[in-house]
Amino acid sequence: MVSRAVFTAIAVILMVLAIVLAGDAMVECALAFWRGDDVGAAALAGIGYSVVAIATFEIAKYLFEEEVLRGSEKRVAAEARRSLTRFISTIAIAIFLEALVIVFRVGKDQVPYLIYPTLLLVAGIVVVIGLGVYQRLSAEVEDAVEARDAEDEDGGTVETAQAPDAPSPSAAARVSRRTGDGRPTRRSGPGP
User: Fold this and answer.
1) Residues contacting 192, CB < 8 A, separation 6+
2) CA–CA separation, 37 vs 141, rounded Å?
3) What percent of the chain stands above pLDDT 70?
4) Which of 20, 21, 26, 139 is deepest in the core (most CB within 10 A)?
């Protein structure tokens, strides 16, 4: 109960800070326009703040959904993978947008400083590649666990007659679905 209260407080604080950042970005752009300052520089700074605000809001939303609403309930691996994928994708998008904003900001006058947004882009690429590897490995593990669970539920190995052109057992596990009585069934229609 205490951990839910703490996660709720942290999520609310992060959401408020995200709104403050987004509001500050709008106010700074309006003030730059009002004073006749460089609106482009204010807009780029505002985009940077907005990107950070989006990422912060997404972190708060993730904490609230995963730790407050769900708490300690048992999660299905595929559901956890989707949730984590959505979260990491948002962070990767924020990294790419921030790198793009920095490229426009320093690209005009300070070319030697372009190494920093370049490294940020490389970091974003590494995050996306890491997410792809995680997706691939976790999907393979899910397939293996589902196949093992199907064997356990049926009281041993699943006996299936395979034609010479039938998919491999791991491919068969990917296309299997459960009926109401727990038996694995093959999906009709074209194969994967």
Assistant:
1) 167, 171, 174, 175
2) 56
3) 77
4) 21
For the chain, how long is the longest CA-to-CA vector? 78
- Cβ burial of 162 (10 Å; 0-12, 13-18, 19+) is exposed
Q: Which has more confidence, 152 or 117?
A: 117
Q: Measuring CA to CA, which residue among 134, 11, 136 is closest to residue 66?
A: 11
What is the pLDDT of the chain when averaged over all its residues?
Answer: 77
Q: Tokens 């951990």 appear where? A: 3
pLDDT in the model for residue 129: 96
Give 48 or 108, the one with higher predicted confidence.
Answer: 48
How far is residue 52's CA from residue 42's CA, in Å, rounded to a whole number?
Answer: 15
CB 158 within 8 A of CB 151: yes
Give the number of other Cβ atoms within 10 Å of residue 113's Cβ.
14
